Amino acid sequence: MEGRTSFERIYEVIAQIPRGRVASYGQIAELAGNRRWARVVGYALHAVPQGSPLPCHRVVTKEGRVSAAFGSGVCNRQTELLKAEGIEFTDGYVDMKKYQWKRRVF
DNA sequence: AACATGACATAAG
DNA sequence: CCTTATGCCATGT
Question: Judging by beta carbons within 10 Å of its beta carbon (0-12, 13-18, 19+), is residue A91 exposed, middle or buried?
Answer without folding.
Answer: exposed
